[in-house]
Automatic annotation (TrEMBL):
It holds the Pfam family Peptidase_M17_N_1. Residues 308-315 form the Cytosol aminopeptidase domain. Belongs to the peptidase M17 family. GO terms for molecular function: aminopeptidase activity. Coiled coil: none annotated. This is Leucyl aminopeptidase family protein. Keywords: Aminopeptidase, Hydrolase, Manganese, Protease.
Length: 460
């Protein structure tokens, strides 16, 4: 179950959020015993510090949470989550010191300290439970936490229990919760209905490839989300080494992220027409596997020379994007764990994105700062178009040379989005080392920033 806020109660322990530059003035106004306790324990208001202060009877009377300086906070995400992890079990409420502008994001971070992936092993529950801070929309923040937990659970589930069938079941469960509709095109029907690239990538697996579609909403702008659903990626005949295959259960992270974003949208009741498309496959090795050197014909009619079967994500996305563009949505967004080049460029913590519209980029950057969901714009660099054009086909799925791999992949995908207003996210979908509110494992990236920006981008 996703974490929720504690019911407000008079017995909740007050938490004073104290910045390092205000600590001395705050402390001078406290009783001598509080001053002595804080001094003895070295509390200074530094980021992440936490201190339970006992009353005269020995029970916890108040808690102090360090908020550091503005410069230090800029280098962290979810500052209060770090403090929450250090406090003793109990119910807490914010009593003072938390800037209203930060309250929703910090409350979300505190909630997310309660996430546990417990499908295979019981985990220790967090003991410090927070009541929603004053002025914070508790239901809205809990909805964001639920979306994040959904995405994390899907990515954390190993491929043995999260194949194309199970990914479809997850979409169906989400649809049932919010009154959406789900359909799917499976196996050989993909060829009959002209999704040849999705079929080609998934045909070597005994777990049938499919295109999952979810629709919700009957009025307002049309928004289509496309998520890469490669439930496991061996690399195909260009087989990955073992070290590179270890995390390939997360190669459906784009699908998990668009389902998380869809959950936010539906829970908020945004007045738009939502369509979610997930090409769900397993890139396996067997007799029918597609080969390096094959030339494939896409749904759009563009031919693609396969120079690496491990560059399969852009192939399945291509057919789904072509389908999406046929309906001419007002905004088309793809999310995918697509390239290692993106990780080399910006590391695991930033979500690189592409758009031709400066206004959309600015709106997303602003919302990312508000929601503690960092993103970074990379360019659709037109001169690199020649890099994805081989001699014998319209497109190359894996240009040689290794340069600008994320950009060339984005340019490849843009060919299938056509003239539609299009944004692409090349996410990692994984937190490689535990951080406050963000345990090691599956991660939702870019989706909260998108959710916050959508009303402005679509003029809702």
């Amino acid at each position: 179950m996703p974490p929720v806020f504690a019911a407000p109660g008079a017995d909740a322990c007050p938490v004073h959020v104290i910045a390092s530059d205000t600590f001395d003035s705050w402390l001078s106004g406290q009783p001598q015993r509080v001053q002595a306790w804080a001094t003895a324990h070295g509390f200074t208001g530094a980021c992440g510090q936490a201190l339970a202060v006992p009353g005269a009877d020995g029970a916890v009377e108040m808690a102090l949470a360090g908020y550091g300086s503005a410069a230090k906070r800029a280098r962290r995400r979810f500052v209060l989550a770090e403090a929450a992890q250090k406090l003793p079990a109990g119910q807490y409420r914010i009593a003072s010191g938390l800037p209203q502008a930060d309250a929703a994001a910090e409350a979300l971070g505190w909630l997310l300290t309660g996430y546990r992936f417990g499908r295979y092993k019981d985990g220790k529950d967090t003991g410090a439970v927070l009541a929603a801070p004053d002025g914070v929309d508790a239901a809205a923040v809990e909805s964001l936490a639920a979306a994040e937990c959904l995405t994390r659970d899907l990515i954390n589930t190993p491929a043995s229990d999260m194949g194309p069938v199970e990914l479809q079941a997850a979409a169906e469960a989400l649809a049932e919760e919010f009154g959406a509709e789900v359909s799917a095109i499976l196996g050989e029907d993909l060829l009959a209905q002209n999704f040849p690239l999705i079929h080609t990538v998934g045909r070597a697996s005994d777990r049938a490839p499919r295109l999952i579609e979810m629709r919700w909403g009957s009025s307002g702008p049309r928004l289509t989300l496309v998520g890469k659903g490669v439930c496991f990626d061996t690399g195909g005949l260009n087989l990955k080494p073992g070290s590179s295959m270890a995390l390939m259960k997360k190669d459906m992270g784009g699908a998990a992220n668009v389902l998380g974003l869809a959950r936010m949208i539906m829970a908020a009741g945004l007045e738009l027409q939502l369509r979610v498309l997930i090409p769900a496959v397993e890139n396996s090795v067997s007799g029918p596997a597609f080969r390096p050197g094959d030339v494939l014909v896409s749904r759009k009619g563009l031919t693609v020379e396969v120079n690496n079967t491990d560059a399969e994500g852009r192939l399945v996305l291509a057919d789904a994007l072509a389908l999406a563009a046929e309906e001419a949505p007002d905004l088309l967004i793809s999310m995918a764990t697509l390239t290692g080049a993106a990780r080399v460029a910006v590391g695991p913590d930033l979500s690189p994105f592409y758009t031709d519209r400066d206004a959309d980029a600015a709106a997303l950057a602003a919302s990312a700062a508000r929601t503690a969901d960092p993103v970074w714009r990379l360019p659709f660099h037109e001169p690199y178009e020649a890099m994805i054009e081989p001699d014998i086909a319209d497109l190359d799925n894996a240009p040689s040379g290794g340069f600008a791999g994320s950009i060339t992949a984005a340019l490849f995908l843009r060919r299938f989005a056509g003239d539609t207003r299009y944004m692409h996210f090349d996410i990692y979908g994984w937190t490689p080392a535990a951080a406050p509110g963000r345990p090691k494992g599956g991660a939702l990236q870019g989706a909260r920033a998108l959710f916050a920006a959508l009303p402005g981008m679509l003029e809702l």
